Amino acid sequence: MNKTILSTSLSTSINIFLFWSLLAFSQTVFSHARWSLTGLVKPRTNSTGLKEPASCGGVARTNTPVVLQSGSTVDVQFEETINHPGYFRIAFSSASDAGFEDNILISNIPEVPATQFYTQSITLPDIECDDCTLQLVQVMTDRTPPTNYYSCADIQLTTTGTLPPPINDTTAPLDVSNLSATSSDTRVTLNWTNPSLDFSGVLILQDTNTVTGSPTMTTRYTLNDTIDGASIVYMGNDETMIANNLSNGNSYYFKAFAYDASLNYSPGVEVNSTLPTNPENFQPEVSIIAEQSQIQTTRVATGAGNVIIQALVTDDNPSDTHQFDWAMTDNRLIDLDNEGSNFTFSPSELEPGTYSIEVEAIDNGVPAKSASATLSIEVIASNNTAPTTDSSGSFNIINLILLLFIIILRHRENLIEKT
Questions:
Q1: Which alpha helices (DSSP H) does 234-341 contain, by range?
Q2: Tens digit of each residue's pLDDT (9 = 90 or more) over 168-207
Q3: Same domain, yes or no, for 48 and 139?
Q4: Per-residue confidence at 395, pLDDT binned at 50, 70, 90?
Q5: 218 plus 152 within the same structural domain
Q6: 125 and 44 assigned to the same domain
Q7: Pick from 405, 417, 415: which is nearest to 9 by CA?
Q8: Parallel, antiparallel, or unpaired: how do β-strands 147-158 and 66-69 relate?
């Protein structure tokens, strides 16, 4: 065998090695779910979730835990960035991110298609702890075996739900300032400025009439509690919130109360807003992503299983629903699921080359508006399936690289012996 053939064979082996290595590295950064950035408890990282390791994705604990009351029932919020059949689970650790499997607070929270934000009531353990953790797990059942994504939120549990206050503190903080309300389709956005001194958070009441009630001093409240008929729609220390699922054409009143660590509440400031009767219909935005073997990619192999294409829509009209038209997609690709926003095809019988995928998302507004997106997929010939995974579902990168390197070296030795 001459050197040209040897070089070509080695080049082919190296190309295969690089292809699967890139897929493996991309696996470590693709993710699907996390605690909401604006919810009661916050994720440790802005990443949309981590898959490995199974505790908290290897993200260290922060120094800003949310203080909650031992044994209380609270509403927590999380979001799913990519829809997959399956369910969610919430677990608890009292210290050191350990013991989640022994402290599952709720499981089998169903995944709802086309839903991004979730709110779930949980009852916290009736203990006190300084470095406890809430763990969100997304279990994807369309994988064999099922695979998980993880997101952790740092909390502290105390009997009062607050850190120890200053002794004999009876002085309330100043009210928030610059409170404003902006209405749009089925929602109102509030913005304000928090006081700079003696401040722990803001409680906001919502009603369809002027808010007449006020929170009682030293009383701890949770979301959805009512005070004089008004509902608590926000508790936290951000400076913005969105009230969703409102009725167009109606007026809503919001009253914000600042509070301190001793649960002294300010007098409160109010703002109101009337939603438009016939809100303007805005054009949606749509994008496309592709997955093969749980990896987001635009380069797929014929032997690595089905390819799942998903259309992701953002729409400034929250009440809009959407239909999806894939008719302009390359007709050599056959949709296997017919699930609206998903297009699944098998590449096993396709010729190597580039294939175009196009979707049009049409809303139900008046007048209806639409948006389109395209994605090019490169199909490469491969008789191999995707690399195997370890028990946690993640690629063992070091072992994979070492194995492939040994194969290439042995292949080279065999070729040299034959020359």
A1: none
A2: 788 999 999 999 999 999 999 999 999 988 898 999 999 9
A3: yes
A4: very low
A5: no
A6: yes
A7: 415
A8: parallel
Non-local (6+) Cβ contacts of 19 within 8 A are 299, 301, 380
Q: Among 252, 245, 258, which residue's Cα sits nearest to residue 199? A: 258
DSSP H or E stretch at residue 7 = helix 3-27
Taking Cα atoms as reference points, which of 33, 72, 234 lies closest to residue 153?
A: 33
| pLDDT tens string 91-105 | 999 998 999 999 999
What are the backbone dihedrals phi and psi of residue 5, each rounded to the nearest 5 degrees, phi first? -65, -40
Helix or strand run (H / E) with residue 252: strand 251-259
The pTM of this model reads 0.50
Q: Degrees (nearest 5) of the Cα angle 290, 291, 293?
A: 160
The verdict on residue 139 lying in a domain is: yes
Helix axes 397-418, 3-27, angle to 10 degrees: 170
- Residue written as token pair 């990168």: 397
Do 352 and 309 share a structural domain?
yes
DSSP E strands: which ranges in 260-306?
A: 269-274, 285-292, 295-296, 299-301
Same domain, yes or no: 103 and 83? yes
pLDDT at position 211 is 97
Rounded Cα distance, 130 and 141, in Å: 35
Quick check: 308 pLDDT over 70? yes
Helix, strand, or coil here: 297? coil
**Cα distances (Å, whole numbers) of residue 284 to 303, 316, 363:** 36, 7, 7
Residue 262 forms part of a structural domain: yes
Coil, strand or helix: which one is 409? helix
Two tokens, residue 269: 């400031």
In the chain, the N- to C-terminal Cα span, in Å, equals 5
The proportion of the chain whose per-residue pLDDT surpasses 90, expressed as a percent, equals 55
Question: 213 with 255: CB under 8 angstroms?
Answer: no
33-88 pLDDT, tens digit per residue, is 889 888 889 999 887 666 766 678 888 898 888 989 899 888 899 988 777 788 99
